[in-house]
């Protein structure tokens, strides 16, 4: 019984810590981090389909044993380190990618995009080609 109480308390604590960005909040955050306006609808679609706008999302283990982290669901195989020391191509820890301050996640996402384009994300590939969200009210 004690275990259940502790588990539920921790679950509530971590759930309260996670930020869920609405579409317009996301647009505002992306603009503040210098994402280009001509690709804004693509970025919004990508985030909505990868993390549903949740900054603290950690994906399920992928077939290759890797995981995806944060708002942009950035993979730990090449991009972030699962240790306390920043590393891999984005020179960040995966924990850096699951905070409400999306500065490091945004910088890393731009790096992934620069190398691979939107095709690096399955959420964009599967859901965003030809059908992008309306952000005109944002």
UniProtKB/TrEMBL annotation:
<keyword id="KW-0326">Glycosidase</keyword>
<feature type="signal peptide">
    <location>
        <begin position="1"/>
        <end position="18"/>
    </location>
</feature>
<dbReference type="GO" id="GO:0031640">
    <property type="term" value="P:killing of cells of another organism"/>
</dbReference>
<dbReference type="InterPro" id="IPR019799">
    <property type="entry name" value="Glyco_hydro_22_CS"/>
</dbReference>
<protein>
    <recommendedName>
        <fullName>Lysozyme</fullName>
        <ecNumber>3.2.1.17</ecNumber>
    </recommendedName>
</protein>
<keyword id="KW-0732">Signal</keyword>
<keyword id="KW-0929">Antimicrobial</keyword>
<dbReference type="Pfam" id="PF00062">
    <property type="entry name" value="Lys"/>
</dbReference>
<dbReference type="InterPro" id="IPR000974">
    <property type="entry name" value="Glyco_hydro_22_lys"/>
</dbReference>
<keyword id="KW-0378">Hydrolase</keyword>
<dbReference type="InterPro" id="IPR001916">
    <property type="entry name" value="Glyco_hydro_22"/>
</dbReference>
<keyword id="KW-0081">Bacteriolytic enzyme</keyword>
<keyword id="KW-1015">Disulfide bond</keyword>
<dbReference type="GO" id="GO:0042742">
    <property type="term" value="P:defense response to bacterium"/>
</dbReference>
<feature type="domain" description="Glycosyl hydrolases family 22 (GH22)">
    <location>
        <begin position="90"/>
        <end position="108"/>
    </location>
</feature>
<dbReference type="InterPro" id="IPR023346">
    <property type="entry name" value="Lysozyme-like_dom_sf"/>
</dbReference>
<dbReference type="GO" id="GO:0003796">
    <property type="term" value="F:lysozyme activity"/>
</dbReference>
<comment type="similarity">
    <text>Belongs to the glycosyl hydrolase 22 family.</text>
</comment>
